[in-house]
Amino acid sequence: MRLAVVQMLPSGERDPDLARLLALMAESCGLGAEVVVLPRVPSLLDDAEARRAFLSGGGACPPGVSVLVPLAAVERGQPGGEETALGRTVQLTGDDCIEPSLYPRIRESEPDALVLRPEAESALQAEAVLELALGYSTSLAGLVVVCDPAGLDPSGEPFAGSAIVQHGEILAVAVDADEVLTTEVHPPVRLQEPVSPPPEPQLILRQRLAHHQGRKAEVEWLADLD
């Protein structure tokens, strides 16, 4: 199965973002993708015209191509599985991607694949999420897709974070802000048995969770809270 993951740098404006995402979806299908995973683009959320464009494929993809596109607000803390072309799939957004308290509920769904849209806030967070994805692919689901828009660091330089990981191996990782990752995903993708425990998020991700939850991160040494 040929899988494509789209990363783009949003403009923040609806029309150019919609046009760019449809163009990258068309590029994905032109590369022979059977499954296309798209990022969560803020300017397109809860937009009826964008929904119609993607449901129709925007003329970009032939019939039968499966497109995973998030166009609506999500309820956080409620990981649920659904059947997709990747098999039983759990899609997570934002802090849910890095929240250890959700691991038992994810396991209960018995996913073949995890799709993470973590909304990384920095290049360091994006790197830490990739490390988590590697751990997830040997503990929670055999196939893990990280699909985020590119972000901007404080200097204004874009950073990338999207990746495809299977059974502890990075199959593709984004380098550019606008990029289509493609790879062949080999079945079976489901873990027959976990080969490692779920990973502990790095400090930078624990700090993010604590900040969003209005508390301080628990650390062994206070000097770690730089």
Tertiary shape: globular
User: What's the number of extended β-strand segments?
Assistant: 12
| Helix-strand category | alpha/beta
How is the biggest beta sheet arranged?
Answer: 6 strands, mixed
End-to-end Cα distance:
44 Å
Proportion of residues in extended strands: 15-25%
Number of helices: 5
Task: Give me the strand/helix succession.
Answer: EHEHEEEHEHEEEEEEH
Low-confidence stretches: 221-226
Mean pLDDT: 88
Q: Compute the gyration radius: what is it?
A: 17 Å
Q: How are the strands ordered across the major sheet?
A: 4-5-6-7-10-11
Helix content: 10-25%
How would you characterize the overall build of this protein?
There is one protein chain. Strand 6 (113-117), helix 4 and strand 7 form a beta-alpha-beta unit. The chain has helices spanning 14-30, 48-55, 103-108, 123-136, 203-212, and strands at residues 2-7, 35-37, 66-68, 81-84, 87-93, 113-117, 143-146, 151-152, 158-159, 163-166, 169-173, 179-184. Strands 4-5-6-7-10-11 form a 6-stranded mixed beta sheet, covered by helices on one side. It is α/β, with parallel strands linked by helices and 226 residues long. Residues 221-226 have low confidence and may be disordered. The protein is built from 5 helices and 12 strands.
Short key terms for the protein model shown above:
alpha/beta, six-stranded mixed beta sheet, 5 helices, globular
Compact summary:
This protein is α/β, with parallel strands linked by helices and 226 residues long. 24% of the residues lie in helices and 23% in strands. Strand 4 and strand 5 form a beta hairpin.
